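User: I'm writing a short report section on ligand binding and want a predicted complex to refer to. Could you take this sequence and (2R)-2,3-dihydroxypropanoic acid and write out the structure as tokens? A short remark afterwards would be nice.
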Amino acid sequence: MSDTDLDTTARTILTDNDQGGYTIPTKGLYPYQWNWDSVFVALGFATFDQDRAWRELEMLFEGQWRDGMVPHILFRKDDPSYFPGPSVWGTDGGPIPSSGHSQPPVAATVVRDLVDADATGQSLDRAAALLPGLMAWHRWYLSYRDPKDQGVLAVIHPWESGRDNLPDWDDALRAVEVKDIEPYERKDTSHVDPAMRPHKEDYDRYLSIMAACRGVDWDPAEVARSCPFFVVDPGVTFIFLRANRDLLHLAEKLGKTEEASEIRGWIAKMEAGAKILWHDELKAHVALDQRSGKQTDGISSASFLAPYAGLTDGETLGALQAHFDRIAGKVRYLMPSYDPEHKSYEPLRYWRGPVWAMINYMIARGFAEAGDKARAERLRADTAALVRESGFAEYFSPETAEGAGGGSFSWTAAIWLTWASPSHVEQAA
Ligand code: DGY
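Assistant: Sure. The structure tokens for the complex follow:
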């Protein structure tokens, strides 16, 4: 297929997955609105329909909880092809049935991107309407995912990280007692090869965490205090730090001085906090289990998001460049979601090795902003090569380019349109 045909196919995937203002990640496997999927999808729509891009974000914020959280899944209708559905989550925090935790807060960054890309200035009104919701969500993150005020954010469930099955969660997940779960039937493995999905032991614990949170009615302070899983995630932390910089830009542009000053405080705190995640021997930022106090021992693709977060000091950048080149010597396509030299690496199992297009996009953006255009371009070229090889798969083998997980995947299509496709190469990082 030519690149122009791929552009057309990508647009068709987005419009086919459109449910009337919001977009599902893929039919069958993920039949609802997912938080960060939707936000990347907005970037894809923005390449041919600005209004539709804004609608995606507005519909996501329609599901915002009273306490400020924007949930990871909005269940606008019941779909028996997905488990666990709304009755298992048992939440009551907002106007739309939803899951009970959040997902990486990319939205402020994309709102800024949409505003910056609109020469007419008309987008500013829509950004202004979203600003209070964004502020409330960011405050929620700081209150309930950083209760010790350290400048780093934890996740209360592997799914909150968006990187569900990462080896970083293994030890913390194993420590979760399996209890209070009913017999259940998974649906994911009827859509996708089980060898590419999490194991049953993982699902038992995913559901046990949900049961524990249900037990405290998803009260956010109580969840932060007692949830059996509470792991600081460099991915969410770096995405949030970046999002705060973009939120600050928006607040200043909109003349919101009080908000701007509040956000400046958040940025300073997060810049200092990130140091907690630095692993002296590995020379990278890694996850930290708040319940056991232990740092994890592997480098994930999120370690490479430090420059995206604006952490571009010489030590961090130099170390990441060295890791980048080392990993490039081990696999054909960058950036594997987990270090291919780590014992837990699996090239085709969900988040234990495969490449994701939207992670590549964010890493490349950070590297380019730090002045490393060559590595940013390598990531763009690899992402384009993966799509040319295997189409718009959910994720790809870093070794063979094999596509895996769901097919006709919205965020892969969106990232192709906004960044990897040669027709948008001028926007490449
Ligand atoms: C799933 O069901 O696998 C989802 O990734 C949860 O977000």
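A remark for your report: The chain has one domain: 23-378. The chain has a mean pLDDT of 96.
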